[in-house]
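In this section we walk through a basic example: taking a raw amino acid sequence and producing a predicted 3D structure, encoded as discrete structure tokens. The instruction is simple. Fold the sequence below.
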Amino acid sequence: MNVNMGKNFPKTFFFNCSSCGNNYELTLDEFIVKELPKIIDVDHNRLLEAYNNSNLKFYHSKYLNALQFRKSLGKVEEGTMVCFDNEIHVIRGFPKIRRTLMLSKALEKHFNGEIAVEEKMNGYNVRIASINGKIIAFTRGGYICPYTTKKAPQLMDLNQFFQEHSDLVICGEMIGVENPYVSYYYPEIGELGFRIFDLRKKQSNQPLSIKEKISILKKYNLPSVRLLGIYSLKEAPSNILKLVKELGEDNREGVVIKDLKMQIPPLKYTSSQAHDDELIYAFKYPFDLGKAFFFSRVIREGFQAYEMNESTEELGKRAQRLGESILYPLMETIEHVAEHEVAGEDLLMDADTMEEAEEFVRHLRDLGVMAKIIKFKDSKAVIRRIHQSTTDKINNYINGGLY
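The resulting token sequence is shown next.
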């Protein structure tokens, strides 16, 4: 059984067995065949196939070496990282949260008791874990984010939490106008902040119950997303629709609906204004994002308008918002590119040094994002994210190319 080794992977490495405490020197193929199946309960043939197809890939950084799951495999989620250090640490990927279009019917079918409603915030989903005393932040895809790895311990005091709960992973949202992934203004956050929505066990990915999570976060004074209410299944739909409407009017995103014991997967439900904001962003860069965003957001709007039983006037306002969210940003970008500019967005990032900003740009490029630093001054970097497909295609059509 042959494995195509990544160029940065050592031919052998030391493996500390958590069961017996002994140290072993293993090759990568020996680890995948003999040890990894026992750790994550996946057949070694499937693991070897995934590695040779680059769906399971060696990951090398200054923080650690790991095996990265680029796609889900069996019950192991995409973004899972098997980290090599003095011991093996498994940081499971964050499960995708399904969306409900019709609250009343979906809640009744999906849940079987009281439910908690938390605010869904517009930011960047990361997991924070302690790997042999090093606090490291992982993106949803399983990459180590150098920016969040530095900033999270500055925003929150994590030392005591991880000293006493090294088996837990913090799942949360990096938010604020200086978030270089998703810049969004929350009055209570300002430049940069973090809000925790889950605490999960490392290897099993089992989430703590709502009650346990609240208790632990309160004990360590760690910031949580807002708990908007706990409802019975009977009273939940009307209350959630009201909450989401109010959140939308306040230009906030929506809610995540959870089983109190966290034994049933959560659901999410978002506001009309959130759908419009996503469409505005997508149609600024229509040939990079437009098609993927368009259909699902329009479908959400239709079902939400139906369930809310909107009046003719309310429906007209929704339709107008929807149309403006598509046409105006598209026209703006066409005009921008026609003036010999690129379709791009400038992101503000707090960075102590130019080297730190450059490291983040390399991280973005690893994610497949075209970006460059256009300004660095007073510990602030302006990073331009370029949407090349939109730039090229608009230029082509403006100059007579056929669609």
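Looking at the output, two observations stand out. Confidence is low (pLDDT under 50) at residues 1-9. The chain has twelve helices and 18 strands. In the next section we compare this with other chains.
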